[in-house]
Amino acid sequence: MLQSSEDALRFLAEGETLFGDGWTHVNSFEEIDEDEYEEEEEEIYVTMDLGTTLDAKALQNESQYQLVGLDTPLPFLKVGNQVFQGQSTPLIGDEVILGLIRNSDNPHEPTHPPLYSTNHRLTFRAITLEPRPTMNNTNSNNIPFDHPSVLVEGEAGPGPTTSSNNQSVSEKSSRIPRSSMKGSRGSIKGRPKGTHKARLIIDKLDDLRNFDLNNMKTSQKVELGPDVIRSLGLPPSDHGENLTLTRSMMSKVITGYPSVISSGTQNENGQPGSSTSVMNEETPQRPIPAQDDIRMLEETTNSKDPAQSQLEVDEAVIDVEDDPPWAEIVDGELPP
User: Fold this and answer.
1) At what angle do helices 291-302 and 247-255 cross, to 10 degrees?
2) pLDDT at 17
3) How many whole angstroms separate alpha carbon 111 and alpha carbon 95?
4) How confident is the model at residue 71 (pLDDT cuts 50, 70, 90)?
5) Which of 4, 18, 179, 288 is least enclosed by beta carbons within 10 angstroms?
6) By the 8 A CB rule, do 325 and 178 touch?
7) 121 shares a domain with 181
């Protein structure tokens, strides 16, 4: 090991090199003729497998083809108007690439001498390229996330046909929500947790007079239209929407609502009729509750005894089981 520059001079004087044994010290290099060396490019051969998606005769008719991204894991091959996507498939052994030498004496029997060998193969399959969707709105929140730049669809050309994503209604589900048959305000997709029965909408006073409270389920709700709300003298709801009432609230509204009967009407005995209530005459008249009172009644109803609340929940569950919010399809038709 060198300790100082004097040791280096001593090693050179003794004919030893700084690199150790086997190295020779020269004062200068000889001139190298660069023309003596030839540049050799590395060549790698691959075989391409197009499968059965392209006919051999159609391949012979095409005089031009284009390879894109051959040095990438997913190269593309364009032959005519067809586009193929390739995938590198490593081979265990080597494949021999043969040449073609035609014999003038016997042109039907050419010779195929071996030229190269390779252990790389590219397996191509036909795809369909679609352009990137153009969005007029530049807001990134409105851009769909399921549109890639290049869509690679199913196999093109001959091959197994893929089943369509569209299915008939009978194959998707054999149950239809009852809300779609009763003309509700919006279609209900599925049945989320806590969904009640279909609501009843009362838009006319005649429907309110003829409403049968006994046939109303515990879990059902009734919506009063704007005309009925104005006729009852109730304050209008927010944004002009319908007013939703439960069974207990509906009972209070019906009890305190007098039916509008003309004073000129007569009964069976020819006597002039009188103004009566929707309920029996024995039912005492009550003032019409305001919207704030209705909300207070609803909060009072929600804060009742736990045992009574559990009983009402059990009754609601029984009502749902007896009258589910769907209908069974029999032979492709809805029951009457």
Assistant:
1) 140
2) 64
3) 18
4) confident
5) 4
6) yes
7) no
Quick one: 202 exposed, middle or buried, by C-beta within 10 A (0-12, 13-18, 19+)?
A: buried
Work out how many domains the chain is built from and give that number: 2
Statement to judge: residues 99 and 180 lie in one domain: no
Cβ atoms of residues 228 and 208 within 8 Å: yes
- For 38, the token pair is 């030839």
Contacts (Cβ under 8 Å, ≥6 apart) of 231: 205
Token pair belonging to 18: 């700084």
Residues 227, 290 within the same domain:
yes
Instruction: Report pLDDT digits (tens) over 116-130.
Output: 888 888 888 888 888
Answer yes or no: do 118 and 205 share one domain: no
Same domain flag for 118 and 203: no
121 domain residue, yes or no: yes
Does residue 334 lie in a domain region?
no
Q: Where are the beta strands (DSSP E) in the chain?
A: 47-49, 65-68, 76-79, 82-98, 114-127, 175-177, 200-202, 222-224, 243-245, 326-328
**Distances 158 to 60, 155, 163 between C-alpha atoms, Å:** 18, 8, 15
Q: Which value, to the nearest 10 degrees, does the dihedral of the CA atoms of residues 38, 42, 47, 50 take?
A: -110
The pTM for the full model equals 0.29
